[in-house]
Amino acid sequence: MTRGNQREKDRERAQARGKGSKNKDDGLTPEQRRERDAKALQEKTAKKAAQSASGGDAGGKSSTKK
Where is the composition biased (Basic and acidic residues) (predicted)? Predict the structure, then answer.
């Protein structure tokens, strides 16, 4: 075996990385998740609309297409 224990070490590293990642199982049903995401999207668009109405373009990008 030319790789030695490299495979085992890589598996250990992958498991360690997986522990810190976001967990998809947040205890919500798909319907609850959709409602939560829709609410977050509405808040985001409202915030962006308020920001553009005040003339502040913090993103540095223009929303108009040429």
Answer: 1-15, 22-46
